[in-house]
Amino acid sequence: MSGLLIRPRIRPRVAVVLVYTAAMCMNGLDSTIVNPALYTIAGDFGRPLSAANTVETAFLVALAVGLPVAGWLGDRFGTKRVFLGALTAFTIASAVCGLAPDLDTLVVARAVQGLAGGLLTPVGMTLLFRAFPPHERMKLAKVLIVPTALMPALGPPLGGLLTEHLSWHWLFFVNVPIGTAAVVLGVFGLREHVEGPEGKFDTVGFWLATPALGLLTYALGFGPSQGWTRPAVAVSAPLGSVLLVAAVLHQVRAKTPLLKLRLLADRVYGSASALAGVTAAGLMGVLFVFPLLYQASLGASALDAGLSVFPEAVGLMLASQVVDRLLPRLGPRLLTVPALLVAAAVFATLAIPGVAENAWSVRGLMFLIGLVLGTAVLTVQISGFESIGPADMGQAMGLFQIVRTLGGALGIAACAAVIGGGHVTEAAADPGPYRTAVWVTAGLVALGAVMALRLPREAPQPPPFDDEDAPPPGEGLAADEAPAVKG
Fold it and tell me: Per-residue confidence at 479, pLDDT binned at 50, 70, 90?
């Protein structure tokens, strides 16, 4: 028929899954993929390694800075608009990183990547969780495991391979076609949701929480390795702590806070958020310290040490299948508590003398870590938002990511402090400090098992879903439907 404009009809929930997965895989990889290339980057630009480390400093600090405002921006301007804007900025910044003619340009572009990434994760998960009612979120296990756990684990070995066989520039160029395709799909496939924030923007909360997280991330990331007395760290740690306390006091009293800390009073969500922080501390801590123990015990190379933790990624993939099948039958508490207890036992086994010297034992234990700890992490992430309504989903996601990010940074800092600042060459003959640090991570995971007792017994049931923006289960909506606007 003439005069008809034929446009592709993309099911919004399919588009959400595809765009979210692509964007979060880029973000997850970029948090770890650059580490193996820092020596090469420093050599190419004729700069010392300490200067090249600012590439990662800029990314991590900017990522933390973007988290507090993510929920408010999504509610105020729409989750689709903010998510695609952040994804576009991330993609462009990736291209600039790959083309960077000098280290300063690379650092600035990396900071833009981090800032965009800080917005992508909470806003992207808000899109995802608003598209699926609570009783259907167990199906998301296979989606969530890839960007949140698998991609960071694949980052170091992939970064080493690309740097060795192509160049470090490809660490960033690989994002460009993926990001471009995801943005195009998102433009046509995602539906807009403008919640409408209550009241005015919390300017005071912004100027307290944002620098607090940035300063604390910097201090926790570089204090153990560069020394807590270094001027930049010595100022960042106490100043960030003071600002964080002030931010919490302000958020509790404010009528329209930037971060709705009152959400933590909810038993399920509050317990899940705290548990996410503790498990992130244990997981990030052991992934940081065990490769060092592996090198200290076996004299292995850095690449061998990185590959030693790769079986964890295989276990993580299997964990998504476990959660999908067992969570509806066992419920969050009965699935999470045993998983964390087994994970704590596996962590402790890694610290036993003689275990790290056996390569196959290490591979088997790393696989178990991915399986059991991945099962617990996914269960907490899915069940923790059962009691959160659509109106609070953006704020809850932002707060959840802040707690998890700080937890991971604290875990790494604690392990680095135990091993005496992470100077591998000074302690290579004595793996004792590294084993002690692994015991610390085991204790953190065991603490998580105790905290998991507060999770609900029953899995989410399929009550009527009261969010008019989400389609009924099994149905898709046309891409040209009118956007949902609330507030």
Answer: very low
